[in-house]
Design goal:
Layout (H helix, E strand, L loop, with lengths): L7 H7 L2 H22 L7 H4 L2 H18 L10 H17 L6 H29 L5 H28 L15 H24 L7 H13 L2 H14 L3 H33 L7 H24 L3 H8 L1 H18 L8 E6 L6 E5 L2 H14 L2 H7 L7 H30 L4 H19 L10
Antiparallel strand pairs: 1-2
Helix pairs in contact: 2-5, 2-6, 2-7, 2-8, 2-11, 2-12, 4-6, 4-10, 4-17, 5-6, 5-8, 6-17, 7-8, 7-12, 7-15, 7-16, 11-12, 11-17, 11-18, 12-15, 13-14, 14-15, 14-16, 14-18
Length: about 450
């Protein structure tokens, strides 16, 4: 089937719901470790409390991919029902999270939230390949990279904005110890999650299956029960996995292990490096939490600012070379993070709201470099993969490919919980250093990827 070339605005609206999904992920990345600590968690317990994300991704994404590949409704489409269901559940979990009365209530809500986000996220990857001709793949995935950066940026900066402009006080807390600014940030995230998905659902149509595909879908539904079909499709997909996809395993493994280290321990590393404490009852730890949001927001600003600039660069030097360069920059940034301070001003920006100026200090240098890494991680591996997998199995292969994200996260959780954190001297700063080394390692492996053309 010849796919129609879409305009900039059509590609933007079809991916707009990605903003809401990533806003939700951004709230988790910058706030969950702090929420756990406010509820009484110890530093050594943090990795296992992050288990929800990777496990739900491991289970949900390939299953949703297989189901959506074999789904078609003339009224609702193939991928859009999954966007909408995921967004509704995620919004409810976001509203409930700040009311957590215990560590395990927060952890349970995180399981629900991550499952819902994965239900929405996986079909979005396949959506690009469903809707766009191959020549627009880079643009489609980099549009998702743009919305990843924008969504997580606003999620990370929301608490700081609420505090900086005097809307809420830094020290104001709910009865469970969670800051009031966290409550409002999660509420805003709930609205963003559902509203942006609705834009995609109401503005974007889906291509119907060909007559042969529709016949195959109906036949499979008649002869197999859905569980058997899902298991069979996943098993066959693993057996027939393209060479390019196999070569991308270490390219995904090391950077995603690194990013989970970063998200779990950045707040504690900053608190220790800048303020010489990891005590969550001090205002220094509150400052480190706010700074975490600002730094994460900054690397996501860089991400969405350069996302489209990467398109001509990828065409010129190749996706794998660009990915190597991008991961290496982020790795170097994390390695130098412990040597940076939050007092030396690099430059100042005029405040867009007209209240003083915004000082950008030395600590933000690593965040600038990490933004380039993040933009590449959100797009280049998918570009390398998309042209090599069968079009009628796009959903299931994108689901399996996202297992290459969550499996390293699961390994990171258990290895960090029971071995690596002790080997690193129980020092969160050393965890950040390890993350830097692993980003560079993933970049080296990207140089060995050979791209093959899709088998239709």
């Amino acid at each position: 089937m010849q796919k129609k070339r879409l305009s900039f605005w059509q590609i933007l609206t079809m991916n707009f719901g990605f903003f809401g999904v990533q806003f939700s992920f951004g709230l988790q990345q910058s706030n969950m470790s702090a929420i756990y600590k406010y509820l009484g968690a110890e530093e050594s317990e943090l990795p296992i409390l992050w288990l929800a994300g990777p496990v739900t991704g491991l289970i949900v994404q390939p299953i949703v991919g297989a189901i959506s590949d074999g789904t078609w409704s003339p009224k609702f489409g193939r991928r859009k029902p999954f966007f909408l269901v995921g967004a509704i559940i995620a919004s409810l979990a976001l509203v409930a999270m700040p009311y957590s009365s215990s560590i395990w209530m927060a952890a349970s809500l995180l399981w629900i939230l991550d499952a819902a986000n994965n239900i929405a996220l996986e079909p979005y990857r396949a959506f690009v390949s469903d809707k766009l001709p191959e020549k627009q793949y880079s643009f489609g995935f980099l549009m998702q990279s743009f919305f990843t950066g924008l969504g997580i940026t606003l999620a990370n900066f929301t608490p700081a904005i609420l505090v900086s402009f005097g809307i809420l006080a830094l020290a104001d807390k709910m009865e469970n110890g969670i800051p009031v600014y966290t409550f409002w940030a999660f509420g805003i995230g709930a609205i963003a999650s559902i509203a942006t998905i609705l834009v995609t659902v109401f503005t974007t149509s889906e291509y119907p299956p060909t007559s042969d595909e529709l016949k195959r879908i109906k036949e499979e539904k008649m002869k197999d029960n859905i569980i058997y079909r899902i298991v069979k499709d996943i098993a066959v997909a693993f057996k027939e996995m393209p060479k390019t996809m196999k070569q991308l395993i270490p390219v995904m493994f090391f950077p995603w292990y690194a990013m989970f280290c970063y998200w779990q321990y950045l707040t504690s590393a900053l608190s220790l490096s800048l303020y010489e404490t990891v005590d969550q009852d001090t205002l220094f730890f509150n400052k480190a939490q706010i700074l975490t949001g600002n730094l994460n927001g900054t690397y996501n600003i860089i991400c969405f600012m350069i996302a489209f600039a990467l398109i001509p660069i990828a065409r010129r030097i190749g996706a794998k070379n660009l990915h190597f360069f991008s991961l290496s920059l982020g790795g170097l940034g994390l390695l130098m993070m412990p040597f940076l301070n939050d007092t030396t001003i690099i430059f100042s920006l005029s405040n867009p709201f007209g209240i003083g100026s915004i000082d950008v200090t030395q600590i933000y240098l690593f965040s600038f470099l990490l933004g380039i890494t993040w933009a590449s991680m959100m797009a280049m591996p998918y570009q390398m993969l998309a042209s090599s997998i069968p079009g009628n199995k796009m959903g299931i292969y994108m689901g399996i490919f996202n297992m290459f994200i969550v499996i390293p996260m699961i390994i990171q959780i258990f290895s960090m919980q029971y071995l690596v954190y002790d080997l690193l001297g129980e020092n969160p700063i050393n965890v950040i250093r390890l993350a830097g080394i692993l980003l560079i390692t993933g970049g080296v492996f990207s140089l060995f990827v050979s791209q093959q053309k899709r088998v239709l």
